[in-house]
Predict the 3D structure of the following.
Amino acid sequence: MTAAQEEEILKPNFGLVVLFGSGEASPGGRKVHDWVMRRLTPPVQVSILETPAGFQPNSQLVAGKVGDFLVKHLRNYHPAIEIIPVRKRGTAFSPDNQELIQPLLHSNYIFLGPGSPTYAARQLEGSLTWSYVLARHALGSAIVLASAAAIAASALALPVYEVYKVGEDLHWHTGLDLFNPFGLNLVFMPHWNNAEGGEELDTSRCFMGRERFTALLDLLVSGVKIVGIDEYTALIIDINNEAVHVLGVGTVTIMDGGQETIYENGATFPISHLGAFRLPEPETYIPFAAWQSVLAGSSQATSSSSAQVPIDVQDIVTQREMARLQRDWHSADTLRDRLESMGWRVIDTPDGSQVVQLSMTQSNNEYPHAPGGSYQ
């Protein structure tokens, strides 16, 4: 690989950010995952972080259910799943354990979901894990946040359980402030239209109810925008194209001071509606050591995967992947036959499509296995 090619691969190319109001493992959620995975360069490498539920003894099962869903319902993308058990600082499962988070170096789909928003923010703030997530995002990986994780990504995180379940006084907790480097000062509130309380208890506004929510607004500093995301609805922020999309059965509400704007399913609007957007240089907000580690890991992975297969073969494999994603099976079969005529056999594995030279293929039923630790 030439220096120019390496520079092209490693330059900032920010990935999508997806925020679910709820329903990340529902039929509607599958459509959102599909929308995002369709825009990734194959293979789809998924890392699911246990952190938001890391205080729970069953955090691995919580993350595993999401992995099960993606494998079962997004099988056409052959997602390779890694469950990353970053649970608590000061333990063997610390988010600062570099060895534990190595799978992030080659992930292009990073998921964080249910649990506690404030716990997730405390464990991830300033951690090596969060630095890796930010670096991978700057290199094109999608960040998918649901429920607690969506709240934790805010400039100020809503302490849902502390207020709703424990009865603490109304307050805000420091969040991970994911969009601060982009000039956006946002507070995300999933479950915006929740109605579990029925007629007896207002549980809208992420279980706060309108009365408590109004009081919470008074505790915010000026310039913060509230982004309310209805249940079974997702907000997709496309940084590179400076656009925001709404997908799902509900709406997204942007509150700026006393003004409220509602966007329906299927709506697309400029990212500037979220604030004074800017494109940052990754080095300005990602710790130098973490940025260099992720750059080195990405470069090594790209070089090792590209060096063994001729460029013209790689091009055809990519064309075939695109045909498969579009369910153009005839074209995919034609490209497969073309590869075989060139002396290469394409093999569809849990890690995506791989090619081996025909002389190296021993059986039509054998395929390279996924790396150790993968969830299949």
